TrEMBL record:
Annotated GO MF terms: isomerase activity
Keyword vocabulary terms for this entry: Isomerase
Enzyme Commission code(s) on record: 5.1.3.31
Record keyword Isomerase present: yes
Domain Xylose isomerase-like TIM barrel: 24-252
Keyword Plastid in annotation: no
Pfam families assigned: AP_endonuc_2 (PF01261)
PANTHER family membership: HYDROXYPYRUVATE ISOMERASE
Lineage, top ranks: Bacteria, Pseudomonadati, Bacteroidota, Cytophagia, Cytophagales
Catalytic class of the enzyme: isomerase
Protein name: D-tagatose 3-epimerase
Length: 283
């Protein structure tokens, strides 16, 4: 069975010792790993968390985003360099966490638009930055799992077809892709076709309901999603990504204006749901 993870963004975007009781309870539920947002905290905080999760027998993965001043597809050489520097810092933090995967939409700046579709040159620019960053990440045996976002958060990569194009542009074995059921619910015509498209480079999966609440409680076509993963023989993380307003600054940044489900409802019932669907579809 695939490993099941939980992204603690349901509580906070910060990494600190305050999360230890949350980590303990996630371990008790049965999770194999925990996913953390790579923010500005001192690397010592990531080291302590890495040690704590390792001692509990939990693995870790990580997620990151970039802003307008560190955009890999900017026309500005200086801004692209800032993007590379930011990703390298994230690699250092992920390494301290013992994470082998950094996922997220760090191919471009989150929610920054230019009022036109993406151009080939932008894929090339992102590819150059990601290739250079992947050379650094490879030294720590870290893989990038790039994420396609819905049209309201990103214009470079909305679909698996576009994401596959970006991975090819990066041209590095440590640059791969992620599939997110929430974004694909908005942008893809068919889960099975989308997964077949990204299968050759798929490295990570986010299990996320259409409203970002408890998986299985909304409108995502979960049988299609799990059947599609089974059809490509996916072997990797199935990590729940759900949001709340527990961290107002982060919630405001991603447009979360209400509670979808209580975080422990998401964690407990989401875990059961993934187990049930995985058994049903032979994952």
């Amino acid at each position: 069975m695939n490993k099941i993870g939980f992204n603690v963004l349901a509580w906070t975007a910060s990494v600190s010792d305050d999360l230890f009781p949350v980590i303990d309870r996630l371990k008790g539920i049965g999770y194999d790993g925990v996913e953390f947002y790579l923010g500005p905290q001192e690397i010592a905080a990531y080291q302590r968390m890495g040690d704590y999760t390792r001692d509990l027998g939990l693995e870790t993965t990580a997620v990151m985003t970039l802003g307008a001043d560190e955009n890999p597809i900017s026309e500005s050489v200086e801004i692209r360099q800032k993007a590379l520097d930011k990703i390298k810092l994230a690699v250092d933090r992920a390494h301290a966490l013992n994470s082998k995967i950094i996922c997220g939409p760090f191919h471009s700046a989150h929610t920054i638009f230019v009022n036109r579709p993406a151009e080939d040159q932008e894929y090339a620019l992102a590819g150059e930055v990601l290739n250079a960053a992947a050379e650094y990440a490879a030294q720590a045996n870290i893989t990038f799992a790039l994420e396609a976002l819905n049209r309201f958060e990103c214009y470079l990569c909305n679909t698996m077809e576009q994401l596959h194009k970006l991975v090819k542009a990066a041209n590095h074995p440590n640059v791969r892709a992620m599939f997110d059921t929430h974004h694909s619910n908005i942008e893809e015509k068919n889960y099975g076709t989308a997964l077949q498209t990204i299968a050759p480079v798929l490295a990570h999966v986010h299990i996320s309901e259409n409203d970002r609440g408890t998986p299985g409680s909304g409108q995502v076509l979960w049988d299609d999603a799990f059947a599609g993963l089974a059809a490509i023989n996916y072997q990797g993380w199935l990590t729940i990504e759900a949001f709340s307003r527990n961290d107002p600054g982060f919630a405001n940044a991603i447009g979360v204006w209400r509670e979808f489900n209580e975080p422990w409802d998401i964690a407990e019932n989401g875990y059961k749901f993934i187990r049930e669907m995985s058994l049903k579809h032979g994952l």
